[in-house]
Write a sequence for this structure.
């Protein structure tokens, strides 16, 4: 199939626009982020369309579409109107109180309220309606992330038979956790309604295949070196790992700007310390910020030589503060910062510099450059692009990356990073000491390896390989995607024990599940 002239249609929970109301009028400007950076050139080239919620409730929706039509991106936006109740139940409820914690291995944080599921289905159907109204023959349709896992199934029920791709930006959980989801079969069937399913890592891919083989009947898996195939009632569904990345050259180029270099020097001078350690995270319990602060405290306790010579800059970007768990997390972070600073602060030196705010882009890049060590220790993360951004901006190639082994980026960056278990705060403290003591040649070698890997596999390679994988006629022709160990034949990988177990549930379970309301 020749797709060179096909229109690309992207669907995501949120449109990549920033809306502002100035008096009675609305204005729209382009949002930022890796996804829009990667996809904007393709959308412009293909006269594309981006469908999503604009960020305002349905009362203002009628006024938004004309504003979106006036944007100068070279492609079109189409909004999906959501009510305040839908936003509460579908997004804050099912998406972020069920899927988000469960898929990040934090099932104790889940709230399996049945109303959430019904709202999730209803909103996915709303997105499907908008897609159906705006889709054209031969369009390339690419749906994004965990908020819209059921949209493909809704489109199939409407009779849409063209190819649809889906990419999951967060991790996919292992079987024992996924089984806790009351709507596990519906989610699997929903995902298998797509023609291509992309995951961040081989771990996520294997978790998904394990769940499919264990829970569903009559689904066969054909192995390949890159993109696998599931045979679902005569349909072929391609499934692969496509680790997302960043625009390396854009980050490195912006870091070279004189104003960024000047701000970097100002930060380094003002910190008055030998080593700057940097943590940058959105306020979220998956990011492991309290554990990181505990590790820094242990480092100061066990290695007195670090006192006065190493400071941690912890940037926390506000998020979901209306949710009690997030307010509690913020209080815990502030308590730990106060405890460490109260105990170890000396005249002219503060152990932890804490900022609870967003940083402007150039300011953030200046902090990246100023930092001698990046401490990135999420409890679980789909990828973690902060790790890649830090390396891209490290023009001196002398920085040290300490990275959680539970971040998706760890599989790609393990050669150059110091990998740690974020739950083992003593080992994280040891890694901080190791980074402090590391000689310049080793720091340079590690950072050069990291930057080479990120430059080679940038976000444009990610987008291109994913789109190509949707349209190949033979799995063997699929574009090469990153695999955990290319020396292990795909057939052997899939024949390992996790993929040889029998389905957990018998025919009676499947018959009952098929009759359940969805």
């Amino acid at each position: 199939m020749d797709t060179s002239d096909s229109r690309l249609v992207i669907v995501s929970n949120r449109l990549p626009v920033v809306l502002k109301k100035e008096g009675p009028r609305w204005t729209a400007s382009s949002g930022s982020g890796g996804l829009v950076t990667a996809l904007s050139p393709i959308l412009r080239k293909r006269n594309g369309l981006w469908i999503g919620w604009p960020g305002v409730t349905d009362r203002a929706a009628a006024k938004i579409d004309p504003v979106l039509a006036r944007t100068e991106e070279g492609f079109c936006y189409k909004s999906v109107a959501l009510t305040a109740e839908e936003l509460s139940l579908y997004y804050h409820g099912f998406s972020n109180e069920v899927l988000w914690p469960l898929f990040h291995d934090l099932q104790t944080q889940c709230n399996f309220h049945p109303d959430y599921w019904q709202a999730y289905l209803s909103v996915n159907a709303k997105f499907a309606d908008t897609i159906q109204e705006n889709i054209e023959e031969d369009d390339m349709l690419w749906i994004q992330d965990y908020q819209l896992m059921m949209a493909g199934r809704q489109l199939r029920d409407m009779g849409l038979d063209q190819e649809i791709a889906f990419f999951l930006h967060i991790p996919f959980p292992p079987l024992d956790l996924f089984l806790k989801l009351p709507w596990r079969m519906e989610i699997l069937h929903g995902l298998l309604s797509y023609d291509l399913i992309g995951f961040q890592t081989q771990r996520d891919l294997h978790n998904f295949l394990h769940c499919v083989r264990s829970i569903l009947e009559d689904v066969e898996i054909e192995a390949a070196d890159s993109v696998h195939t599931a045979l679902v009632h005569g349909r072929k569904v391609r499934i692969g790992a496509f680790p997302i990345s960043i625009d390396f050259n854009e980050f490195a180029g912006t870091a070279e700007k004189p104003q960024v270099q000047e701000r970097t020097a100002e930060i380094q001078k003002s910190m008055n310390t030998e080593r700057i350690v940097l943590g940058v995270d959105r306020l979220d319990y998956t990011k492991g910020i309290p554990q990181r602060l505990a590790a820094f405290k242990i480092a100061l306790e066990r290695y007195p030589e670090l006192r006065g010579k190493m400071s941690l800059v912890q940037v926390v970007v506000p998020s979901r503060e209306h949710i009690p768990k997030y307010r509690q997390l913020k209080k815990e972070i502030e308590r730990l910062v106060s405890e460490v600073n109260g105990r170890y602060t000396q005249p002219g030196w503060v152990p932890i510099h804490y900022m609870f705010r967003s940083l402007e882009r150039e300011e953030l890049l200046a902090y990246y450059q100023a930092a001698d060590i990046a401490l990135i220790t999420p409890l679980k993360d789909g990828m973690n692009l902060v790790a890649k951004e830090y390396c891209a901006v490290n023009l001196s190639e002398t920085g040290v990356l300490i990275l959680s082994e539970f971040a998706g980026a760890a599989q790609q960056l393990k050669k150059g990073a110091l990998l740690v278990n974020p739950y083992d705060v003593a080992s994280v403290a040891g890694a901080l000491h190791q980074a402090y003591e590391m000689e310049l040649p080793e720091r340079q070698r590690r950072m050069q390896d990291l930057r080479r890997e990120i430059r080679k596999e940038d976000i444009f390679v990610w987008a291109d390989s994913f789109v190509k994988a949707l349209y190949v006629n033979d799995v063997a022709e699929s574009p090469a995607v990153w695999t955990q160990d290319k020396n292990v034949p795909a057939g052997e990988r899939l024949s390992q024990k996790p993929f040889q177990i029998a389905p957990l549930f018998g025919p009676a379970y499947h018959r009952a599940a098929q009759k359940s309301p969805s």
Summary: Residues 482-518 have pLDDT under 50 and may be disordered.
